[in-house]
Amino acid sequence: MTATGDAVISDGDATGSHAKTKKGEQRRAAIMAAATDLFRERGFRATSLDDIGAVAGISGPGIYRYFKNKHELLSMLVEEAAITWRATVDEVLSQNTPPLVTLERLIDAAVVLQLESGNLRTVYNQEFRLLNEDDRRRVARIDRVTMAEWVHLLLEVRPGLSDDEARAAVVMIDGLLRSVSRPQSNIDRDRLAGVMKDMALGGLLALGPPHPVTAASA
Fold first, then answer.
1. Largest alpha-carbon pair distance within the chain?
2. What region does 57 belong to: left with phi over 0, alpha with psi -120 to 50, or beta?
3. What percentage of the chain exceeds 70 in pLDDT?
4. What is the Cβ-side half-sphere exposure of residue 146, based on CA atoms within 13 angstroms?
5. Is the pTM for the entire model greater than 0.90?
6. pLDDT at residue 141 above 70?
7. Which is it for the CA torsion 5, 7, 9, 12, positive or negative?
8. pLDDT tens readout for residues 113-139
9. CA–CA separation, 30 and 200 (whole Å)
10. Best CA proximity match to 143, nearest among 211, 61, 81
């Protein structure tokens, strides 16, 4: 889906187009937020466009002004999660800090993203298989690059690991972080972020022989 100037959003073979007004953007964002919550809570199949519209404050049929169908809406959500995470990794890696400092900052960024967008990442994890083949391939390509960056960084910090061991560790840490989407506890956000970081960083630093970097950033 691409924007054309400031006038319309074109969906190729979509059923129509709508003015890209501020109100339209707000409605589209509301639809995506509602879909994210409902897909996570009920699952994709058990959620109807009418359900999404009721939460977003727009009629079910009105959603067709913004998305061709429910599958396109899911595709947009999953791709957004992958792109957002990829951009986060790129931003951290561009800072050109020592490997251990970079790893710590990457975990910090992952924790912040999870606490801010946990529902979206949960939908990504739960519903990826429901995308059509082209969408799955596109999102998988983004994920492969992101994963490779994580693995490369971990191997710099823990050079004694094999590629397969580093990849397995990154997958497990990612799963740990994704498991925190809507915590059922009274712990405050800052403390929760600290626990998540300690678990993730501590787990990775426990792997293999230590890298000769003596301290991470404050």
1. 60
2. left
3. 83
4. 22
5. no
6. yes
7. negative
8. 888 776 777 777 777 788 888 888 888
9. 32
10. 81
Residue 174 pLDDT grade (very low, low, confident, very high; cuts 50, 70, 90): confident
Residues 12-38 have a mean pLDDT of 73
Instruction: Find the domain containing 162 and state its range.
Output: 71-205
Residue 134's CATH number: 1.10.357.10
Q: Are residues 51 and 97 in the same domain?
A: no
How many C-beta atoms surround the C-beta of residue 44 within 10 A?
A: 19
Q: Decide if pLDDT at 67 tops 80.
A: yes
> Residue 216: inside a domain, yes or no?
no
Packing angle of the helix pair 133-157, 163-178 (nearest 10 deg): 110
Indicate if 86 and 27 belong to the same structural domain.
no
Half-sphere exposure of residue 149, counting CA atoms within 13 Å on the CB side? 18
Question: The CATH number of the domain where 52 resides is what?
Answer: 1.10.10.60
